[in-house]
Amino acid sequence: MTCAKLKVCMVLTVCSVAMSSAMAQPAGGNQSPPVVEAVDTERGYLKDPVQLTFRDRFAKAGESYFSPDGKWVIFQATDAPKRGDEVGQFYAMYVAKIVWTDGRPTGLEKLELVSPDGSANTCGWFHPTEPGRVIFGSTLVAPKEEAASGYQRGTSRYRWAFPDEMDIVSRVVKGVLAERGVDAATIESLSETVPVFSRDRYDAECSFDPSGRFILYSHMEPAKEGQKPDANIYVYDTKTEKHVPLVMESGYDGGPFFSPDGKSICYRSDRAGNDLLQIYVADLRFESDATGAQVPTGITREYQLTDNEQVNWAPYWHPSGKFLVYASSESGHSNYEVFAIEVDRERMNAAGAGSSVKVPNLPRHRITTASGADLLPAFSADGKWMMWTSQRGPKIEGETRPSSQLWIAEWVGPSKWPAK
To answer: Which SS3 state, helix, strand or coil, does residue 347 take?
Structure first.
């Protein structure tokens, strides 16, 4: 979810579930992950898409991110139920290792459940400098509110749940440490899932800055009577344990990520309060601490990159910092597609005066065109691979559409936009 926390007309469920214990088998069960050709109109951007998770193992999987070395992924998923059972209510958090064959990804292995049984989980992320450490949003126990996120039959609405128990938690991945030669006793002593911090109400949608010192996240503010949930974006300093507000405007602001150079953030906002989300970028303001390190203390300027009658969400930076990929409803709420938008600093700086400006007519590029929803895109750190959540795979008997699963493809589109 990124992360994705909103109430819109959607079909994909992107929140949290409890699951069974971790297994060391490939995430595709007994299926062999097929390498398929990209849709004709995708070939200028993506090459040889590969399905990483499958319906026989997961009822649905989504919101996945690469480890810094590109060898592992963290994602949320719900277990495939036994015949006659219902799909679990919340997402669990998993980590798995990518299987490479002749230099190309062909599946997942060493699947490891990192969230507690019965908990609701969302938005996982790897620590940039501590191999094996991850953070994610978790209730740690079953949330009191029974209603889960998902498509509401008969209403044509998509409901997001914001459990008050949701905190940002941290733990290590046993499989990663084991591969690095850490002994079993040490791994076991480090494997407890613990809150990074605790605040009242929902805290999630977390990610690290490139240094690993600062955590960007969304925090749910106290509800105002008659108004929709309103989350704001904060940054947490793991060294001083201070929380600094960054984006405090009305409307749900969430799904934030640091730019590759750590100087800006991207996010999506329901600033207009109409459930039509728009993509934003903001430049951070810094001050020096006692050691001379640069500490974010706010934002200097905010740029609205999209301004249309669509739902635009889950923005993610390309490592070049020159463009963002995101999901949009331009093709319909049942067929979200991945788009790219150029982060053209020349146009942004010329957009006018003020602390918050709209940047008109930034070039956009449609990346995916396959049938079924394509969303939640993320790049590997070297920019060579894009991973996303898609419904382009096969469907099983009784399903009206294919389930949401993880896919990966080689990125063959431009490495930098705009071209100068």
So the answer is: helix
Q: What is the pLDDT of residues 216-237, one digit of tens each?
A: 999 999 877 777 779 999 999 9
pLDDT-derived band at 33, boundaries 50, 70, 90: very low
Can you tell me the distance from the alpha carbon of 277 to that of 3, in angstroms, rounded to the nearest whole number?
Answer: 13
Structure tokens at 337: 């597609």
| pTM (2 d.p.) | 0.89
Q: Which two tokens stand for residue 311?
A: 């739902």
Q: Would you list the DSSP string of 67-131?
A: -TTSSEEEEEEEEPPPTTPPPPSS-EEEEEEEEEETTEEEEEEEEEE-SPTT--EEEEEE-SSST
Q: What is the pLDDT of residues 182-214, one digit of tens each?
A: 999 999 998 899 999 999 999 999 999 999 999
Q: Which phi and psi angles does 100 have, rounded to 5°? A: -115, 135
Under DSSP, the state recorded for 29 is T
List Cα–Cα distances, 151 to 161, 175, 262, in angstroms: 12, 34, 35
Residues near 83 by beta carbon (within 8 Å), at least 6 away in sequence:
none
345 in helix, strand or coil? helix
DSSP string for residues in 149-206: SEEETTTTEEE----TT-EEEEEE-HHHHHHTT--HHHHHHH---EES---SS-EEEE
Cα radius of gyration rounded to whole Å, the chain: 20
Which residue in this structure is represented by tokens 């499989």?
Answer: 175
User: Residue 327 pLDDT > 70, yes or no?
Assistant: yes
Q: What is the Cα 219 distance to its own chain's centre?
A: 16
Cα separation, 364 vs 360, whole angstroms: 11
With a CB cutoff of 8 Å and minimum separation 6, the contacts of 183 are: none
Domains along the chain with CATH numbers: 52-304+343-361 (2.120.10)
Count of alpha carbons within 13 angstroms of residue 41, beta-carbon side: 10
Query: Of 306, 276, 239, 15, which Cα lies nearest the Cα of 138?
Result: 15
Measured distance CA(73)–CA(108) in Å, rounded: 9
Higher pLDDT, 18 or 209: 209
